[in-house]
């Protein structure tokens, strides 16, 4: 079966290499999410929504080990979707993967909501806080009540020493990988510090405001954190209260 898109081998290799430098626990992260989904999904069949599916890491990790799962992946980058499409074809999973070039608003209207959803390394590329909230609300609207959701994003208070210390750790990842100091400094100034950081409590607040409950931080590496939670019901009975 031919790829839906032309596959760029060099781009794919560069993306995965850089991801593993920036997040040394990159591969373990996706295994952790799979374990969480498996414990939370009732029955073997499951429909999984993947926001930011370009690159195909979710598909290549979760797909082969869970042959009864189906996936709907969304990404605004056509180039990244080429990588996901290639991996899908290589794994023989095309019959249970639907890749959509666009945003969550481009999802087809369906009668059934998703059994699980993920948004990994996407939220920090959205600058506007209201747009972040709208994305999380849209994800929640496409999920079954009680379904598990995982969010992974860069986080931190730009003015806090804590973020500066973690930034130094992130910088060391790249130096240890052989990048010259001048190049790493440029990556910090024109790259990583251009993304949208929010304090941990604000991210958790956005999740609650979007309708998610039982919010638990489960992952931290360098500049990035991960939260697992559930889609709350529509009757308001599942909404958490701060005390």
From TrEMBL:
Signal sequence, start to end: none
Keyword terms: Transferase
One of the record's GO molecular function terms: transferase activity
PANTHER family named in the record: TRANS-ACONITATE 2-METHYLTRANSFERASE, TRANS-ACONITATE 2-METHYLTRANSFERASE-RELATED
Location of the Methyltransferase type domain: 50-150
Protein source organism: Paenibacillus allorhizoplanae
Protein name as it appears in the record: Carboxy-S-adenosyl-L-methionine synthase
Keyword Iron-sulfur in annotation: no
Top class in the EC scheme: transferase
Superkingdom of the organism of origin: Bacteria
EC number: 2.1.3.-
Pfam family, one: Methyltransf_11
Keyword Phosphoprotein: no
